[in-house]
Amino acid sequence: MFRSFLLNWLSSQYGREVQSQIYEAAAEALRGAAGEGEDPSSLRADVGLVFARGAEYGSLLDRLEDVETTKGNGLKFTRGRHQKTRLAIIEAGRPDAVREGILALLQVFRPRRVVAAGFATALSPEIKRGALYIPSRLVSPDGEEIDAALGAPAPPGRETPQDPVRFETAPIVTVESLPAGPNERAELARKTGAALADTLTWQAVSVCREESAPCLVVKAVAAEYGDSPPTDLHRAAEIGRGSAARKFGALFGAITNRPSSLLDLYKVKERELETAETLADALVRIVAASAETSAPEIPDSAAPKTPNASQS
Description:
Elements: H1 2-14, H2 21-30, E1 47-51, H3 58-61, E2 65-72, E3 75-82, E4 85-91, H4 98-109, E5 113-122, E6 132-133, E7 137-139, E8 145-147, E9 167-168, E10 171-174, H5 182-192, E11 196-198, H6 201-210, E12 215-223, H7 231-239, H8 244-257, H9 261-292
Parallel strand pairs: 1-4, 1-5, 5-12, 6-9, 7-10, 10-11
Antiparallel strand pairs: 2-3, 3-4, 5-11, 6-12, 7-8
Helix pairs in contact: 1-2, 2-4, 4-6, 7-8
């Protein structure tokens, strides 16, 4: 019932005038997700979450109920419930899909607030894997800077006996491709003054700022400054960027040529899983705090407007 309603709703809202990939992608991603007759208010989410990759929120999904997922055009939408709090999740996949995904998230699910979450890479030797950060400053690949706060709801405080989750603050730079080794990370830190790097935060916060949507950024460190993946696995990841089939083929070739790379890959995935668990612990606390505090709904005037050609 979820999918057909969304498709019909999007069509009735924008019809043939919609040429932008934003809503074409949203319609395709949500096609067939439910049946006729669903109450539009049932799509309302209390919190919208934005991630770059599925590995970042798999542990969070394990803690949700009534999970439904649909995908298309490089976008993946999931909705679920944590206790009484309704969540809508967008997995953008590639950096250039973040804007499309968040606008669709705001338009269809109308969350009261957005959390841009996921993994980050440390650009400083002092930052350790599993540390949780709320960026103090955002830096674009071109060196622009914006304030990270944007009127976002306050996250849980620093460590207390009742809440073992501890948050730190540091500047974060958003890049198209994460630096693979210490030399590249040191150079990126020198150029930008950032202590963390990711592929999503700048775009996510920029869109939320444009649409007057409260936004909070929460990052868990998945790669330390000194981490350096084996050359063949890094090459395979680069070859397979943007295509699951190509990625599988490249990884299969790496494992065939060097069987021990399978163990290296397992270690990488194990570290990612541990980081995802830490991030999920933090997010469920933030979701719980969101349910306890009131926040104004995004006004109709702030919802994404029908796009014009310049937005395509």
